[in-house]
Amino acid sequence: MTIFGIISVLIVFVLILFGLWKLQQKHVKFSTRVFIGLGAGILFGGALQLIFGAENTITNGAMEWINIVGNGYVGFLQMLIMPLIFVSIIGAFTKIQGSKDLGKISSSVLVTLIATTAVAALIGVLSVMAFNLDGAEFVQGDQENARIEQLRESQTAVDDLTIPEQITSFVPRNVFADLSNSRSTSTIAVVVFSAFVGTAYLGIKRKDPEQAEFFKKIIDSLYAIVMRIVTLVLRLSPYGIFALMTKAIATSNFQALINLGLFVAASYTAIAVMFLIHLAILAGFKVNPITYVKKVWPVLTFAFTSRSSAGTLPLNIETQTKVLGVDYASANFAGTFGLSIGQNGCAGIYPATLVAIIAPTVGIDITDPTYILTIMAVVAISSFGVAGVGGGATFAALIVLGSLGLPISIVGLVISVEPIIDMARTMLNVNDSIVAGVISSKTIKQFDESMMNDKNLVLQEEI
């Protein structure tokens, strides 16, 4: 009976995959197919939850096979992170019109990303207070206990490191090892190495233009190849998102979701407020927030459904350069740096909300302005090196909680609602990197106002 049930579930799963493939053959818009995959996953996962339940052997057996599609898709996204960072950052250096703009671009992008992350931490703390979650206790079941044990093992990688030591760990001692993502800080290490290569290129360009031009052609070719690979992977998004959502809904503990409802509400409120702050910042730089939202909406919806800042990078850069009017160098720096530095959702709001919840349980006054400033500072510094694919938020939370001497169990207790919150967090991360690109382009006076103000100019989907 169990085998028959598993086979029946898989047959329906394959039929839905076939339906998504038919939509692609009929050239239905990419964003539409992604949302159909998301909706199909919610409905199919919900049906499995209602018919069999989260702990049923049929559900678990079917998920082992469904995970091939979901986890395979995530694996391909993770595969792209290092090549994307490497070619995008070096490509940005080769496109810089003058080396004098380099300092302005990098400083503008970094200041925007880090400053907004500190503000995001403050918003996270205030949101917890507004929902009276400071000192709240959550239900701890078998799944949460297992997750806590895993986290304790993961924390050993960062537990004994001070913040200065964490910063030192960003140095790429063995770039080949970091390109294989062998360390928790490999992402930022590759960013640093790529920046060194780009800076070396600028030096060679002045002394030996012929060699520099040859190198530029190599990077341009690599960039084209990597972007083509990205396109091939992104075509899998409707299928991967469908599988991931099916698993998330089918295996969710709805009682836990109810228990954590206030935490979800507090998180989404903080994310919404931070998004409005982004728009206010843009308004301060004379960018129409309404026009901006209309233009970036396709990218943000993809980020929301895919839960991957890295997977969204190509659409991110294309939107900045072809729709918003951001110069190529600023767009690449902002989009790429945003993968590993200053993620407002995953590295800002998330760890700050956890700190605000758990700190009162160990006798800390979370309303103390000094402690709030400490949280903001620690979160801003710890936001370096957060990977752009699932798991980065957990890593950021472990660093922040460890740096403040707080227990990490809270991270495991909210595991049930992680996928739900992570969608909005990722969208906020991507939006912040776009905002950084706009501000940088405005700073170096390379921003194309006519492109930004052209309301008919939107992202052309060719995936």
From TrEMBL:
Keyword DNA-binding: no
Subcellular locations according to the entry: Membrane
Highest taxon above the source species: Bacteria
Keyword Transcription set for record: no
Membrane topology field: Multi-pass membrane protein
Membrane-crossing segments per the record: 6-23, 35-52, 72-93, 105-131, 186-204, 225-245, 257-285, 371-389, 395-417
A GO MF label: symporter activity
The entry's keywords: Amino-acid transport, Membrane, Transmembrane, Transmembrane helix, Transport
One GO term describing the cellular component: plasma membrane
Family listed: Belongs to the dicarboxylate/amino acid:cation symporter (DAACS) (TC 2.A.23) family.
Name of protein: L-cystine uptake protein TcyP
Gene source species: Alkalibacterium kapii
